[in-house]
């Protein structure tokens, strides 16, 4: 019986991240898993429109600046993955918008991809999308694929003191 056991190997890992310390931990784990499994890595950030002030949502310039900031972070995250040995053609970035990050991942992203593992950080209190981690439970309960929720106790304790890339 033991000889038939074969560990799960993922083909396409989704790192659902924001700029919080817990998002950094999720990205780190997803990079490791993708490298270990020789899998493709997609790094996703979701802009939760419902969490934005109405004045920001109605101001095209403000929305554009926010999207540019997130895109810049995604490019940085892509480079981090490449620096840790993932090949250029195996790392991509993805940006999505929606009222709820968890629903956006499950209903808008997963059905249109071949992703077989979602990695998300536990709830964060900082970052541009501080609610992505609070959606981790929803993603774990409803996603049709494996989900790993990353909790970093040390980061949780220090979260108030540190930022991911100290973006302004």
TrEMBL record:
InterPro entries: Rossmann-like_a/b/a_fold, Universal_stress_UspA, UspA. Pfam families: Usp. CDD domains: USP-like. Residues 10-151 form the UspA domain. Belongs to the universal stress protein A family. This is UspA domain-containing protein. It comes from Oenococcus oeni AWRIB429. The lineage of its organism: Bacteria, Bacillati, Bacillota, Bacilli, Lactobacillales.
């Amino acid at each position: 019986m033991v000889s038939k056991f074969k560990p799960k190997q993922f083909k396409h890992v989704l790192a659902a991240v924001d700029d919080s310390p817990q998002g950094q931990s999720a990205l780190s784990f997803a990079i490791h898993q993708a490298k270990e499994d020789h899998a493709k890595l997609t790094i996703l950030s979701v802009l939760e429109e419902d969490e934005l002030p109405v004045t920001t949502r109605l101001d095209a310039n403000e929305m554009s600046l926010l999207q540019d900031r997130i895109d810049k972070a995604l490019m940085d995250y892509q480079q981090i993955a490449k620096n840790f040995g993932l090949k250029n053609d195996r790392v991509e970035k993805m940006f999505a918008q929606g009222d709820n990050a968890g629903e956006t991942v499950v209903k808008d992203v997963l059905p249109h991809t071949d992703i077989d593992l979602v990695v998300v950080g536990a709830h964060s209190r900082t970052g541009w999308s501080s609610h992505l981690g609070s959606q981790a439970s929803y993603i774990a309960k409803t996603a049709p694929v494996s989900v790993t929720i990353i909790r970093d106790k040390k980061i949780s304790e220090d979260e108030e003191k540190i930022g991911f890339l100290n973006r302004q």
